[in-house]
Amino acid sequence: MGSTARFGIHCVSPYHPRMLADEQIAFFRTQGYLIVRGLLDVQACEGVRARMWEDLPARVRDRLQANPVGPFAPAEESTDSVRFRQGYRWLNRALGVSPAVIDLIYGEAVQSIAAQLLGGTLRAVTQDGVPMGSRGPAWPDGPVDPALGTEAARGVYCTLPYGDVPKQPPSCHTDGHPMQLGVVGLLADIGPDGGAFTVWPGSHARLFPLCALRYDQPRIPYYDHLPSLRGIVHSPAYLAEVARLNRDGPAVACHGRAGDVVFWHHRLAHMAGHNYGDSIREAVLADFWRTDFDALRCQPVSVDMWADWSEAVRSSDGVYSAAFAASQGLPGGV
Ligand SMILES: [Fe+2]
Hints:
There is one protein chain. The protein has 10 helices and 14 strands. By secondary structure, it is of the alpha+beta class. It has one domain (3-327): q2cbj1_9rhob like domain (Jelly Rolls). Helix 2 packs antiparallel against helix 4 (99-105). It binds fe (ii) ion (FE2). The site of fe (ii) ion (FE2) has 3 residues, from loops.
């Protein structure tokens, strides 16, 4: 099975490593996310998009190119968790371990920023290794578990336009699998209502202490005859805070241009945005963590939530300008 490739070795991007400015680090620390514009090579984004489309059955590709509005018709669906098409979601996890995606999202441009935020040594990814979804759902009828057999990126995640439907309320969550830093790379331009990855600024600091574990979320065994509790268990305080976030916001849709990248803290509330636009939302999702992560995850949540991050993040004063906040889509500035 595949070869182990340290980040960046296969990078073909002409983009060089980036270093974040103090204000960018401060914003990330305070708000839990950071949009870096134009980070990815747009040509490489196009290459990944082409692979996504090539991987579709011809009849489905022809239909989507003629009319991208979802949902998928029953005859167009695929319940294969590695190449999933159902409803408005089109997920290609096989591409997550492909050289094209690894070059793009684990190339020097992204890696250098992840390293600047996390410090330490970042885990290696495996080219042509096991993709997410290879082991099926995390529990019966549950979602695919990103922690199982994901040897590089999560994959390419697309959302078809909803068409003429009533707008739906926001519904945020935090991810249940252990990781430190999430990354969403935009493969195509996306408008404010086009299904962009949506975040709740500052929610990472509120939710982190309400979780039982520092990185994981407790799982409960599944029993056929006791179906009310399944999968992930949350505390009443966590659920109350999530309800408050959904009610009060604010939420920021991280829209932008192909090549823009969103970095986000693992406890940040987020959702895959509803796509009320005219075109398909196409993005690549990936996770980062340090090689000493298995020791870090054993620490309790009572330990400073930034203790596992770089000195640059730990020492940041968290202060940024109103203009910078506006550039990050934060309503009302700071
Ligand atoms: Fe998520």
